[in-house]
Amino acid sequence: MPTIDALSERLTQYLSHSQIKQVCRAYYYAEQAHEGQRRRSGEPYIIHPLAVANILTEMHLDHQSLMAAMLHDVIEDTGVPKAALAAQFGDVVTDLVDGVSKLTHIHFESKEEQQAENFQKMAMAMAKDIRVILVKLADRLHNMRTLGSLKPDKRRRIARETLDIYSPIANRLGLNSVRVEMEELCFEAIYPMRSEMIRKAVKAARGHRVEVVENITANIRNRLSESGISARVYGREKHLYSIYSKMRDQRKSLSDIMDVYGFRIVADSVDDCYRILGAMHGLFKPVPGRFKDYIAIPKTNGYQSLHTTLINQSGVPIEIQIRTEDMEAMANHGIAAHWLYKSESDQTSGTQRARQWVQSLLELQKNAGSPIEFVEHVKVDLFPEEIYVFTPKGKIMELPAGSTAVDFAYAVHTDVGNQCIACRIDKQLAPLSARLQNGQTIQVVTAPSAQPNPAWLNFVVTGKARSNIRNYLKTQRRSESVELGKRLLNKALSALGKTMDDIDAAHIELVLSETEKETLEDLFEDIGAGNRMAPLMARRLLVANRDTDLDLKAIQDNSRLAIKGTEGLVVSFAKCCSPIPGDPILGHVSSGRGLVIHTENCRNVEEYRDNPEKCVFLSWDKEISSEFTVDLKVYMENRRGIIVDVAAAVNLAEANIEKISVEEQDARLSVTYLSLSVQGRKHLARTIRRLRTIRGVSKIVRIKYPKANQ
Predict the structure, then answer these.
(1) How many other C-beta atoms are found inside a 10 Å radius of the C-beta of residue 472?
(2) For residue 194, what pLDDT is reported?
(3) In the chain, count of helices (H) and strands (E)?
(4) Beta-bridge mates of residue 232
(5) What string of H, E and C letters represents the secondary structure of 197-233?
(6) What confidence score (pLDDT) does residue 271 get?
(7) Which residues form the HD domain (predicted)?
(8) What is the CATH number of the domain that holds 690?
(9) Which of 15, 230, 334, 460 is deepest in the core (most CB within 10 A)?
(10) Are the CB atoms for 406 and 459 separated by under 8 Å?
């Protein structure tokens, strides 16, 4: 069992006497605060904070982090107010404690939301002080070590959360030793039988492997000695979870994975690393395509190493990692290596990258609509596989595997992402949805008037791209809903012979209070989104007494609302009848969707047509210039070249074919289904006339689906 005296002894290696005294003072304060509290295992609660501090001591973290480790559960579990802690230990330590503490006094809709809110709060504290996450990871690691006293279902839940969030964060910050131990403990908690089975198999195989490992190690050392290079060489043990993941993901058997031997060579300098690589390629045959240079292009978490796969004379696959002592420290301790090795400068590659990532969390948090959405974005960015692409000026950009040109555009800058319209990959035009590959050069084409497309959400990968697109669409939808709601309310008021100027401010305040809205814009947004009926709001604004009745039929007057076709997300055109300019139209107010435009004779709005609270009679704006989709069914002969004639006729009519399919009726006749983009009924009539001039076309029908969903 750890003691404060043993910890103090360890701290003399790198902390001053006064700093150790402050750590001890924090321990005794926590011990008093947790007096009488016990863990599930029956041990005194103070054992846990002391163990967390011991984990941080292995990283040589500073005295403030160790004090926060001692006190990290005091605010949450003992009722000591934050102000009292600040008075005793100062603001820095208190902020660290507060960042690590979980929220307790707020009601949440669900357990998932509570966990997401906790993580969101922790991320905000991380952005202020990176040590928060180091204390939190040490806290979680000790909790994982002591899972045995919990019920199996709770063990699995905590282990799953650790595997989903905390282990990837440890990896993202380069804390390899923490990540590996977490994954091993999670694997054992979630799949105890699988873990035990692999453990026994590895133990059984180890005996056969010793001789092979010693033989390969001797060969490597001899070659390095011949080359005059000094370096440490040792065999790498494969971890159980790593073995299990490869078996699951790569569908390999245990024997396939155990047949690959891993070695690490730690050199004195970067120059020696490349010399060793040459020596190894001279000793064993390299496997083509299996060499990776993470020294020239480090991983996102700052990891640097040369990776190569070789085959020895007996046909045994050998994986070798070559790195310097500094890279070894960075690989194992990540951002904590900054404290562990007391570097004077804070500009180490890993530290900079970690801070950049934590700062990017702030942007994700700002754009996220909810804590759960925020965690979803962060999870995406925690996936360890990366690709490296270049900007036209040669700058290297790191992106998650599977990223597209839109992800790249948002990685460059939010405005570049919002305004991108096309891209060039290695100087060739490519779709924005194209998956990027390592080493490609990406050029983004932008336009000032462009805006994000909702369809991008179907293929973007990065959290930054996803959150920015959602945030833009959310903002755009609000402004469009406000504008439409204002027009609908003004129309409803004018039908009653009134305007907004006729309504006094006090009455507006009364209606806002009733509808639980803060501003008139919020009310307009609700109306535009279809959540409230404009005629009812018009009456409520005009009369103080709810029981006063007005003629609802008066709303169906001749002053129809004009549709421009550019209203955006809150006005949509029904697929059942595909209205185009020139068709008589009405709008069905649909909750959450805003205004759905139908033709007046569409069967899907028969039940609403005479209800002014559900339907708005509309007209087309005279200046309309948008294009609309219309479906045609063309009956024609089966002859060679007729589809080419159809395409030419549509082109001559200045329309555009969006989709075309052909159904053969018999050897002589076929039916062609066309989806065309046209500007209105006149344009459609002109197009149909062109199609009728084609030899072999017998009949053309505009398709409507009156029984389809809206």
Answers:
(1) 17
(2) 92
(3) 28, 20
(4) 266
(5) HHHHHHHHHHHHHHHHHHHHHHHHHHHHHHCCCCEEE
(6) 94
(7) 45-144
(8) 3.30.70.260
(9) 334
(10) yes
The two three-digit tokens of residue 204, written as one number: 């059984």
Q: How many domains does the chain have?
A: 5
Using alpha carbons, select from 37, 36, 29 the residue that is nearest to residue 67: 29
pLDDT score at 709? 39
490 and 475, same structural domain? Answer: yes
Residues 156 and 24 grouped into a single domain: yes
Same domain, 164 and 288: no
Considering the domain boundaries, does residue 360 fall inside one? no
Report pLDDT for 706.
Answer: 42
Which of 588, 619, 650 is the last residue in one of the domains?
619
Domain-terminating residue out of 395, 426, 461: 461
Q: State the CATH number of the domain containing residue 242.
A: 3.30.460.10
Greatest Cα pair distance in the chain: 102
Average pLDDT along the chain, 710 residues, taken 10 residues at a time: 84 90 93 88 89 90 91 84 89 86 50 66 69 89 89 90 84 85 94 91 76 87 91 85 87 78 92 94 89 85 87 86 89 65 48 65 65 65 70 84 91 91 90 88 89 87 85 79 80 77 77 77 77 72 48 44 64 82 82 76 78 73 81 89 90 89 84 90 91 91 60
- Exactly one of 62, 77, 325, 613 is catalytic; which is it? 77
According to the model, what pLDDT value does residue 75 have? 83
Q: Compute the distance between CA of residue 358 and CA of residue 352 in angstroms, rounded to an integer.
A: 10
Residues 429 and 577 both lie in one domain: no
Contact present, 638 and 697 (Cβ < 8 Å)? no
CA-CA distance, 687 to 651, in Å (whole number)? 9
Active site residue 666: no
Q: What stretch of H or E contains 300?
A: none
Q: What is the pTM of this model?
A: 0.61
Model pLDDT, residue 362: 65
595 contact partners, CB below 8 Å, separation of at least 6: 484, 488, 528, 530, 567, 570, 571, 572, 587, 588, 589, 616
Q: What is the pLDDT of residue 367?
A: 63
Q: What is the model's pLDDT at position 485?
A: 80
Q: Tokens for 11? A: 């701290």
- Residue 222 pLDDT: 92
- Tell me whether residue 597 is in a domain: yes
Give the full edge-to-edge strand order of the sheet including 656-664: 656-664, 669-678, 628-637, 697-702
What are residue 305's phi and psi, to 5 degrees? Answer: 180, 160
Whether residue 664 sits in one domain with residue 530: no
CA–CA gap between residue 520 and residue 289 (Å, rounded): 63
Q: Which CATH number is 117's domain given?
A: 1.10.3210.10
Helix, coil or strand: residue 593: coil
Question: Which of 303, 310, 314, 17 lies closest to 170 in space, CA to CA?
Answer: 303
Are 678 and 542 members of one domain? no
In terms of residue numbers, what domain contains 415?
385-461
For residue 368, being part of any structural domain is answered with no
Q: Is 272 one of the annotated active-site residues of the chain?
A: no
Q: Which of 492, 388, 480 is nearest to 441 (CA)?
A: 388
- 352 found inside a domain: no
CA atoms within 13 A on the CB side of 273: 24
Residues in the chain, total: 710
What are the strands, taking DSSP E only, across 283-333? 285-286, 292-293, 306-311, 317-324
Catalytic residue among 58, 76, 113, 631: 76
Per the DSSP assignment, residues forming a β-bridge with 386 are: 400
Same domain, 415 and 326: no
Q: How far apart are CA 620 and CA 166, in angstroms?
A: 55
